[in-house]
Write a structure and sequence with these properties.
This protein has 353 residues and is an alpha/beta fold. It has 11 helices and 14 strands. The strands form 3 sheets. A 6-stranded mixed beta sheet has the order 3-2-1-4-5-6, sandwiched between helices. Strands 7, 8, 9, 10, 13 and 14 form a 6-stranded mixed beta sheet that branches. It has a two-stranded antiparallel sheet with strand order 11-12. Strand 7 and strand 8 form a beta hairpin. Helix 6 crosses helix 8 and helix 7 crosses helix 8.
Length: 353
């Protein structure tokens, strides 16, 4: 994930402050990725968790960045009274740490200084998706950009070299299905539906936080172990057996009630349920007819494997954002695609400098 930097070029560190992870991507003046890092950050447990996560990121850099560009969704954490308070407190932590070298992504208002955060708080809040889409729009003329992370999925139509989003705030985007709370690690399985097929019958789901989508994708083999950073629902381990035990609880059963193959089959059923939800959002976006039939679906995030399957369902070409990123190494490019908003804000800052 890191390398020693010998270049004399100025560097920019993009930050994406989430509620569960902190992501950072270091780029040079050409926008080429030097380092990409993701660390757990349980922001809901307090700002000290955030400060410690910053320390971990910095410990993995062999260079002091010349500037810091910040985007966020962490303002939604329930330690904050409201989103404005979250934005200002997160910005305060970053500014105290990095001083005048810190700017914040505020959508159409661009990169704003720390003394402009309060007046731009609404534009800064949860704007990381727009940075990602704006970057992709510089590379792809038309397409549907889909970023699936640990918690949510973003859907943004791209045409005329810019994002064609209908909503901006979380509330607007959720209503329009441009933001869907269906990620590949932290989403409780009860959020995917009320019933699931099992052993030839429809089985109702427990309305309990017994298991998450990470359990599903450990059993299907889709979730990269390096990206599996979230705590489990019961605080236990992440083996296939432990994941299967949690899935069994979702349908009122115990692990020994069925063979391993049955629990793997159940995980595949949950995967199809999530794909159905995501497919509905993608179909709604495509129904706006802003892009032609040849335009690709562009995938980013830890859940890119689901975007690839969505493209097949919708008979569209799949394009991985990793192919749009110039990086110092293949590993750095792959991690930058996982930490995509952090890369996007850094790139956009360099491009507009």
């Amino acid at each position: 994930m890191t390398r020693k930097i010998t270049t004399l070029k100025l560097t920019t560190l993009g930050w994406d402050v989430g509620g569960a992870h902190l992501k950072a991507v270091l780029v040079d003046t050409d926008g080429s990725v030097l380092t990409a890092i993701q660390v757990p950050c349980q922001l809901w447990q307090g700002l000290d968790q955030f400060r410690k996560a910053i320390d971990v990121v910095l410990a993995n850099l062999n260079h002091v960045p010349d500037e810091h560009i910040v985007t966020m969704t962490g303002e939604l954490a329930d330690i904050f009274a409201n989103r404005v308070a979250g934005v200002t407190q997160i910005a305060d932590v970053m500014t105290k740490r990095f001083g005048a070298k810190t700017r914040f992504y505020a959508g159409s208002a661009g990169m704003v200084a720390s003394n402009q955060v309060t007046q731009n708080a609404a534009a800064i809040a949860s704007a990381n998706w727009l940075a990602s889409a704006a970057f992709v729009a510089t590379k792809v003329k038309q397409g549907l950009f889909v970023d699936i992370g640990s918690t949510t999925a973003d859907f943004v139509v791209l045409s005329d070299d810019k994002p064609q989003n209908r909503g901006y705030s979380d509330a607007e985007r959720m209503q329009l299905e441009e933001l869907v709370y269906a990620g590949v690690a932290r989403t409780p399985l009860m959020a995917l539906g009320s019933r699931v097929p099992f052993a030839g019958e429809w089985q109702m789901l427990a309305a309990e936080h017994f298991a998450t989508t990470a359990d599903v994708y450990r059993l299907t083999g889709d979730l990269n172990k390096a990206e599996d950073m979230s705590d489990t629902a019961d605080g236990a381990g992440k083996t296939q057996e432990e994941s299967a035990r949690r899935l069994a609880r979702m349908i009122g059963r115990d692990l020994n009630d069925a063979p391993t193959a049955s629990w793997i089959g159940l995980s595949r059923a949950f995967k199809q349920m999530q794909l159905n939800t995501l497919n509905t959002a993608a179909a709604r976006a495509l129904s706006r007819n802003l892009i032609n039939d040849k335009a690709p679906i562009i995938g980013a995030g830890a859940g890119k494997f689901l975007v690839r399957e969505l493209a097949k369902r919708l008979n569209r070409e799949y394009l991985d954002v990793e192919t749009l990123i110039v990086a110092d190494s293949k590993q750095a490019g792959r991690w930058a695609s996982v930490c995509f908003p952090a890369y996007a804000v850094a790139y956009l800052a360099v491009r507009t400098a």
